[in-house]
């Protein structure tokens, strides 16, 4: 509570509008239209936040923070989707600078990150087998080769492929491949 008050005061002193939330579910109930999310880094919280953003179809830059974070934890948070990481406690000037940097960085990666979040949300709707078929399709394999690889018939691959396209909202195989690439399933 004290930390949240200090952060709110530091940002407000820089004429930055602040809306503190207790947790991700509280944030989800009053989803903002824009902004940056400053989140206390705890196990799984960034993944949960990104999942909530995918559900709402919006991406906001995330700045994670914690007391005395290890280098490994910072790297893991960035790989999970945070755009920056700060060690608490932090001064008001440094906090405002970090926020400005995050906003500038978000402008360059924001649309790509939103597409990735949305693509991952779509792919998560697929069954394990449909994901395997998507991987085969994205690798350029024919239905016959995908079937051989998965030990199923080419006709079964066709059925999984049709279901996969439908669940992804893809009109063509090329749309499904684009979604797989955006979801970072393939390089």
UniProtKB/TrEMBL annotation:
<feature type="domain" description="HTH luxR-type">
    <location>
        <begin position="119"/>
        <end position="184"/>
    </location>
</feature>
<dbReference type="InterPro" id="IPR000792">
    <property type="entry name" value="Tscrpt_reg_LuxR_C"/>
</dbReference>
<dbReference type="Pfam" id="PF00196">
    <property type="entry name" value="GerE"/>
</dbReference>
<keyword id="KW-0804">Transcription</keyword>
<dbReference type="InterPro" id="IPR011006">
    <property type="entry name" value="CheY-like_superfamily"/>
</dbReference>
<dbReference type="InterPro" id="IPR016032">
    <property type="entry name" value="Sig_transdc_resp-reg_C-effctor"/>
</dbReference>
<keyword id="KW-0805">Transcription regulation</keyword>
<dbReference type="InterPro" id="IPR036388">
    <property type="entry name" value="WH-like_DNA-bd_sf"/>
</dbReference>
<keyword id="KW-0238">DNA-binding</keyword>
<protein>
    <submittedName>
        <fullName>Response regulator transcription factor</fullName>
    </submittedName>
</protein>
């Amino acid at each position: 509570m004290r930390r949240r008050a200090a952060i709110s005061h530091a940002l407000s002193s820089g004429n930055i509008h602040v809306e503190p939330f207790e947790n991700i579910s509280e944030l989800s109930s009053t989803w903002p239209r824009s902004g940056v999310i400053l989140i206390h880094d705890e196990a799984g919280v960034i993944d949960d936040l990104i999942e909530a953003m995918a559900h709402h179809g919006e991406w906001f830059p995330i700045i994670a923070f914690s007391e005395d974070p290890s280098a490994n934890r910072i790297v893991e948070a960035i790989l999970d989707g945070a755009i920056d990481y700060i060690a608490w406690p932090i001064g008001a000037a440094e906090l405002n600078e970090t926020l400005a940097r995050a906003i500038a960085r978000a402008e360059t990666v924001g649309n790509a990150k939103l597409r990735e979040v949305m693509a991952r949300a779509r792919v998560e709707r697929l069954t394990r087998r449909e994901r395997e078929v998507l991987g085969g399709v994205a690798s350029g394999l024919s239905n016959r080769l995908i079937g051989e690889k998965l030990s199923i018939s080419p006709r079964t691959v066709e059925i999984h492929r049709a279901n996969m396209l439908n669940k992804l909202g893809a009109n063509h195989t090329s749309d499904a491949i684009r979604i797989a690439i955006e979801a970072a399933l393939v390089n």
